[in-house]
């Protein structure tokens, strides 16, 4: 039993680890099947300009409804996919899907930049920059309508190689941002050196606004630093007006969060952003010319 000491305790814990491993292997298998069965979907969360209240972009967030498991959250399966390497295939699918959607909007006369989350393993693939170039080219999407959200860990792994890749991506004309900013270890020197356009302040620093003094201080400091470095600053996880008003006063540029809208499926997103307004049909095929 549990009361047994020493070796018995060790044996008690060992099988539990195996159960975890088995559960992760099953989840990984189910993910691979889900990609084949086209069970992944993208939802889109509006991003708004703090000064004008206009929707200025959307973050694509993956969703998975499994017939047996129901809705599986990204926080549950993305870490497993990162561990197994399957995140590369998922990331590829997300990139194609998000670019195709941004292109459809563009062709409808709707300028809606789409931000895609890129995981470290995906970014480290030798062909990542070529993949992005190819996907943009075959869709005929103006590159500035694609934003890549990178995490601070990406910048730290191999800083010289990361810098080369970021420069190649910046030359393509895509927008680069740092997601969950403040939760990692990026140094100010990196921020100055890397061709980043945007910082996304992590939700954990927004939660306590405006009352929490350290959250307030961190947010003010990031907004000021962003301005000094010529970066756009967006806050995520904005759930109430007091938070939004603080962010605006602190000098942040943009926000996203449940206050305006959670991530929505395509139809709901379009209704939330454009209402009943009909799209204008762009006559030029491919939409670039
Ligand atoms: P993230 O990129 O930081 O995305 C923001 C998360 O916060 C999303 O959770 C979003 O639904 C949620 N959120 C937005 N506004 C609010 C709010 O006002 N309050 C609260 N409590 N939450 C809010 P989600 O969709 O569950 O995604 C979680 C994480 O999973 C993402 O964090 C991202 O790291 C990862 N993820 C999601 N989709 C993808 C993807 O396509 N590829 C990769 N590599 N990772 C993804
Ligand atoms: Mg993100
Ligand atoms: Mg984020
Ligand atoms: Mg976050």
TrEMBL record:
Record domain EAL: where: 24-277
Domain of life according to the entry: Bacteria
Range covered out of full length: 406 to 694 of 694
Record's protein name: EAL domain-containing protein
């Amino acid at each position: 039993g549990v009361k047994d000491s020493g070796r018995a305790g060790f044996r008690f814990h060992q099988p539990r680890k195996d159960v975890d491993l088995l559960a992760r292997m099953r989840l990984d298998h189910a993910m691979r099947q889900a990609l084949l069965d086209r069970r992944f979907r993208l939802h889109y969360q509006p991003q708004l300009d703090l000064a004008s209240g206009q929707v200025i972009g959307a973050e694509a967030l993956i969703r998975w409804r499994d017939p047996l498991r129901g809705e599986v959250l990204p926080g549950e399966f993305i870490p497993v996919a990162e561990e197994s390497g399957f995140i590369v295939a998922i990331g590829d699918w997300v990139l194609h899907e998000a670019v195709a959607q941004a292109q459809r909007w563009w062709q409808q006369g709707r300028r809606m930049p789409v931000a895609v989350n890129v995981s470290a393993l995906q970014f480290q693939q030798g062909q990542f920059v070529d993949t992005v170039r190819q996907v943009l080219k075959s869709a005929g999407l103006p590159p500035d309508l694609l934003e890549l959200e990178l995490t601070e860990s990406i910048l730290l792994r191999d800083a010289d190689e990361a810098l080369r890749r970021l420069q190649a991506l910046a030359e393509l004309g895509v927008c680069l941002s740092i997601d969950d900013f403040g939760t990692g270890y990026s140094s100010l020197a990196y921020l100055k050196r890397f061709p980043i356009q945007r910082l996304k302040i992590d939700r954990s620093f927004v939660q306590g606004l405006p009352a929490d003094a350290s959250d307030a201080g961190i947010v003010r400091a990031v907004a000021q630093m962003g301005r000094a470095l010529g970066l756009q600053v967006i806050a995520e996880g904005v759930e109430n007006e007091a938070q939004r008003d603080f962010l605006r006063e602190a000098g942040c540029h943009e926000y996203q969060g449940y206050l305006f809208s959670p991530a929505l499926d395509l139809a709901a997103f379009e209704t939330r952003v454009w209402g009943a307004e009909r799209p204008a049909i762009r006559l030029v095929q491919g939409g670039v010319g």
